[in-house]
Amino acid sequence: MSDKNINVASTGNTVGKVTSAGGPGFGNKRSEGLSGKILLKVSDLKVSYGGIEAVRGISFDVPEGEIVTLIGANGAGKSSTLRSIVGLEKPASGSITFNGMELTSMGTEQIVKNGITLVPEGRRVFVNLSVYENLRMGAYLRNDDLAKDLDWVYSLFPRLKERHWQAAGTLSGGEQQMLAIARALMSRPQMIMMDEPSLGLAPIIVQEVFDIIREINHQGMTILLVEQNANMALKAADKGYVMETGRITLSGTGKDLAENQEVKEAYLGKSRK
Amino acid sequence: MTKKKDTIAAIVLLAAAFALVALLDKVLPATGIIMTVLKKGCIYSLVAVSMNLLNGFTGLFSLGQAGFMLIGGYTYAILTIPPADRASVYQYFDGGIIQFAIPFWAGLIAAGLVAAFLAWLIGLPVLRLKSDYLAIATLGFAEIMRAIFQWDKLGPLTNGSNMLRKYPSFSTLMFPFAVAVICIAVIVLLINSSFGRAFKAIRDDEVAAEAMGINLAHHKRMSFCISSFFAGVGGALLAMYQTTIQAQAFKSNMTYEILLIVVIGGLGSVTGSVLATFLFYAASEWWLRFLDSPLMIGSFQVPLLRSGFRKVVFSVVIMLIVLFARQGIMGDHEFSLSGLMKLFGRKGKEASANE
Predict the structure, then answer these.
(1) I need a labelling partner for A250 at 20 to 30 A (CA). Which of A120, B13, B202, B307 fits?
(2) Do the Cβ atoms of B197 and A187 come within 8 Å?
(3) Cβ pair B201:A137 closer than 8 A
(4) Contact at CB, A120 and B209, closer than 8 angstroms
(5) DSSP per position, B6-60
(6) d(CA B206, CA B185)
(7) Which of A170, A175, A183 to mutate to test the interface with B (most CBs of B within 10 A)?
(8) What domains does chain A contain, in order, with CATH numbers?
(9) Facing residues of A61 across strands?
């Protein structure tokens, strides 16, 4: 869509017209303030499935304590990016470092242990397990006491507490999404990645989900958010990246991207007039 | 709190069952029809629960159960035949190559271990397959086992296609009952542990389970090995019960029968499997027996009643049960998904409560 606006470097690195504002602590009102430390660094990541390149060399950073979002249409490679970060997909090339550790050679088990967790697309709660058991599964790799974390997630999601012993399959879509997020939090991650948390939810529930995302971020959690609902995602995000067919074509602060003409036309449904 | 009550109730019930079994051993003739049903019920309960662990709780559709029972039964027999009797058992193979015997309890454990080891060996390649393909591969494995154990060249070990006999067996009901209770209790403890919860998580959603950091390959393999271990012990019990064992008998039919029991009882329900096993054998060995003998009312001979008719009726009954149960579930499904989940939830709770 937007060749005239963007410099796509041959490496696939992102140099968007809108880029910038960046740097530590931009536009941030969070109480503790942001360290500006880069928690996750993805460089020239390529992911392919049987010869088809889903991700064609992307690079981006996730600073500690921020919400970063990847937006883009279906098939842009957003989910593949998340899946390769958490080790569910082996990248063809490139590097992913988290806290300075290289993740590309690690398995999912190790990556989760190191503090990254994924809320998979489509909720994917364990339908025959109770809410409580789902939460226990989230903490599967932990051997320490869970009571404090259970109290914490139940305080974030009081409705889950009411449904403590209910099979997760009996929850509504919105509740299942909350459970999926709560389950991910139970691993006590440093960074939580969410794949389309608004998918298939009623607008009012989507609002609730994003309120929760802001709330956990406010409590200091770093969040990498993949969304098709660009409007909501950009509003919540400190920084955003636009992905198209496996490449990052634009980047900037959430606010700047939301005001960008290209983004507006392609993802926010507003025409140029 | 209710959980505590449930546990106490379960212990009381179990103690009562043990007392009842001890009483039955005194009162009933050891080879009577009721004893046959109860003994077979105990043995196949264990096998059905082991199959349920894999198919119902971990969601791996495997049809290798008869194969692992065969391995378990043969391991037990081969290792426990007293050296003095080996010459007569292995008469065509110069008394065989093994000239020692281990005690029966060690034989039972060895039966499980050998079955688990073979499961471990084939687990890596086979468990990569999904659904139907896994079923075909495991079914094939069981058939191959049956052929290998009958192979002439292995005669010194397996006695070829001749039967194995003269190994220690049991005559009381208490023995298979106690072994089955212990094994099923272990399986229930496993299912309710966090490791077992991971099995259920894998069944519900592999992708999410993997994202939680559950190592899929490792957990599937463990489930396969554990299931096979108990199938092996079950096979050894069956060998003991029959007092002779022949590889030829472990046909895929046997697996289907167990699968049927598991399905009727409910995939993912331990108590369902146990209950279904006893019902199944009571029906096939006892309640429907009368169908096999001609019956005269006055001078009128009731039609159709003759040898073999029992199997016809039995098949129809099974079809009705499966159809009926399916209909129930389907009806729920049409009504709402949550109803089905509730049904599953209740079954799961029963399983954990009653054991």
Answers:
(1) A120
(2) no
(3) yes
(4) no
(5) HHHHHHHHHHHHHHHHHHHHHHS-TTSHHHHHHHHHHHHHHHHHHHHIIIIIS--
(6) 27
(7) A170
(8) 3-22+36-125+191-265 (3.40.50.300)
(9) A41
Interface TM-score (ipTM) > 0.85: no
Residue range B192-244, pLDDT digits in tens = 899 999 999 999 999 999 999 999 999 999 999 999 999 999 999 999 999 99
Domain ranges of chain B: 1-30, 32-250
Polymer length in residues for chain B: 355
Interchain pair A124, B200: CB under 8 A: no
**What distance in Å separates residue A88's CA from the closest CA in chain B?**
7
CB contact under 8 A, A170 and B207: no
As a whole number of angstroms, the longest Cα–Cα distance in chain A is 58
Cβ–Cβ contact A131 with B under 8 A: no
**Cβ A128–B198 below 8 Å, yes or no?**
no
Pull the structure tokens for residue B40: 């077979």
Confidence category of residue B289, pLDDT binned at 50, 70, 90: confident
DSSP secondary structure letters along B107-159: HHHHHHHHHHHHHHHHHHHHTTS-HHHHHHHHHHHHHHHHHHHT-GGGHHHH-
Asked if residue A118 lies in contact with residue A86, where contact means CB atoms within 8 angstroms, the answer is yes
For residue range A94-143, what is the model confidence (pLDDT) as tens digits?
999 999 899 999 999 999 999 999 999 988 999 989 999 999 999 999 88
Chain B contact set for A128 (CB, 8 A)? 200, 203-204, 268, 341, 344-345, 348
